[in-house]
Amino acid sequence: MSPQAGATIVGVATGSTDGGVAIIRLSGPQALAIARSKVGEKLPPPRYLGRRRLALEGGTIEDALVVQMPAPRSFTGEDVVELHVHGGARNVQEIVDALLRAGARAAGPGEFSRRAFDNGRLSLDQAEGIAALVSAQTRAAVEQARRLIAGELADEVEGIASAVAELRTEVEANLDFVEDVGAGDERRWADELADHERTLAGWLGRFEAGRRARERARVVLAGPPNAGKSSLFNALLGTARAIVAAQPGTTRDYVEAGLDLGGVEVTLIDTAGLRGVAGDAVEDAGIERSREQIGGGDLILWVEAADAEDEPERAQAGEVFFVENKRDLGARRAAWLGVSVATGEGLDALRRRLREWSGGDRQEPWIGLARHRDRVAEANAALNSAMTQLRGGEPLELIAFELAIAERRLAEISGRSALGALGEDVLGRIFSRFCIGK
Ligand SMILES: Nc1nc2c(ncn2[C@@H]2O[C@H](COP(=O)(O)OP(=O)(O)O)[C@@H](O)[C@H]2O)c(=O)[nH]1
Ligand SMILES: [Mg+2]
């Protein structure tokens, strides 16, 4: 329970108050009484929206739609009243002030969700899903957040956590009868552990795909002048966004645009061509910016033209796709992705490669956020040491202990653990079974 759980809190649920309607939310033991004191009559029956008149300072009246959701069937699990009022920062603030005077306290950041978690209405990952949905900037981010809220992650995690718990129970049941543990049991345990490890490792692999899909990766077109970077930029976008010219050094600043790869969006960036020193102050500034973009890119599309003989200094960057453009004029770099913006050759293949890279072709991105990924990685590390200890013939206590850690880390994803806090008492119980001197 949070320390302030007893208070009735008030907050504007709709964030910005300049829309046509704002929703003010009251939650806590006094929510119904405070609302009633302002509407001066009965509230509508639970979960029915009813029109009421709010009496405000100076005898003015605000027309509101009011709904009550008594505990425990509410977002927070407490008594909740929502008031739908006219928008407008000033108007909304006056109503909130009236509710504060009537005994409510202003809600702190995330306090409604915190109460929902404390009261078992939301798991931690669901609460995180709501926050992620509110700040989602891409379609994939919205979809992943919705899946988090729907409890998809918690379900998956729970499946494996309870399997690990069963295994631990079995190992613990054998603690007092170590001599009865046969090689068959140990092999079966090891197999099960290996299974769980594989599942968790699979999740970790898919996490990166989910993150890329969510975060709109930056894909930077770079290369020497006149390679056809701007032409490729326009061709991929399907619009003439960047200036294309036969004259080298045309692109002076970088240009960026959202590129839809069929479900996954990336930001595509066209940059000024890199050449040692252009001698032109504006172009040199452009080259400097290109280098910055390349440094901050998630993927570089390094473009050179098939009819260009020289081997320019190639940018050092993380992930690079090497693209040879102007294949209509020949093919010099056989191992590269060949395209011709002029004829359209190779463009579909390039799009496909980009989609694969961005994770858009994966059926199941891991929907968790970074915190969830970290807990999975820790759980996996614990399973790994359990495995090593099992193979090394270490005492079963140690193995059960590692399994409990894995369980605990997985439980931290939803924030609920059947084990309770894994603290000093647990460690004490395990080590008290060891012989003196060991
Ligand atoms: N033959 C041929 N010319 C191309 C192709 N793509 C671009 N160009 C031409 O190459 C020149 C430079 O193109 P641009 O996109 O401005 O190159 P950038 O400097 O790398 O941005 C222009 O005259 C384009 O029309 C291609 O696939 N084939
Ligand atoms: Mg250009």
Task: Report a brief summary of the structure.
The protein is an alpha/beta fold. 44% of the residues lie in helices and 15% in strands. Guanosine-5'-diphosphate is lined by residues 225-231, 244-246, 250-251, 273, 325-326, 328-329, 340-342.
What are the key terms here?
single chain; Rossmann fold; flat; 44% helix; binds magnesium ion; disordered C terminus; 6-stranded mixed beta sheet; 13 helices; Four Helix Bundle (Hemerythrin (Met), subunit A); 438 residues; 3 domains; alpha/beta; Gyrase A, domain 2; binds guanosine-5'-diphosphate
Q: What's the overall average pLDDT, rounded?
A: 85
Low-confidence stretches: 421-438
Order of helices and strands: EEHEEEHEHHHHHEHEEHEEEHHHH
CATH homology group of the largest domain: P-loop containing nucleotide triphosphate hydrolases
For this structure, what is the CATH class of the largest domain? Answer: Alpha Beta
Radius of gyration: 30 Å
Secondary structure topology:
Elements (H helix, E strand, L loop, with lengths): L8 E4 L8 E7 L3 H9 L10 E6 L5 E9 L10 E7 L2 H13 L3 E2 L4 H8 L5 H11 L4 H11 L2 H22 L9 H33 L2 E5 L6 H9 L17 E6 L4 E6 L10 H16 L2 E7 L14 E6 L11 E2 L8 H12 L11 H22 L4 H19 L9 H8 L7
Parallel strand pairs: 1-6, 7-9, 7-10, 10-11, 11-12
Antiparallel strand pairs: 1-2, 2-5, 3-4, 4-5, 8-9
Helix pairs in contact: 4-5, 5-7, 6-12, 7-11, 11-12
